[in-house]
Amino acid sequence: MGVTHVTATVRNPADPERTWEGLFLVDTGATDCLVPRQHLEAIGLEPESERVYSLADGSEHRMSVTVARIEFMGEVVGATIVMGKEESEPLLGVTALESVGIEVDPRNQELRRLPFVRLRLAASE
Predict the structure, then answer these.
(1) Would you tell me how many other CB atoms lie within 10 Å of the CB of residue 11?
(2) What is the pTM assigned to this prediction?
(3) What residue ranges define each of the domains in the chain, with the CATH number in brackets?
């Protein structure tokens, strides 16, 4: 199975002119996004809280998170972003993808738009 990358822009929601653009690994095994901390701090984002994340090797790490706008493939989504180490590869997690109706085509490892964004309503609505 191959890897999929997409160029995305991270925007400070409190100061939209401050942005960082990078090449993100699309990681359907990750819930949230990850960007090296120095890029987030450079656009004025600070840690808002901490969460414990389980990594692919099974280890658990407490990491700082912030919230920002992420723009990719003509879409915009508000996302939780893990403030990663300097050498970390930026990751685009599955929550950001699903929020705008984009999925990874497993056959050719390309991103494709769904004809709609999934939304389930309670039977009484």
Answers:
(1) 21
(2) 0.87
(3) 5-113 (2.40.70.10)
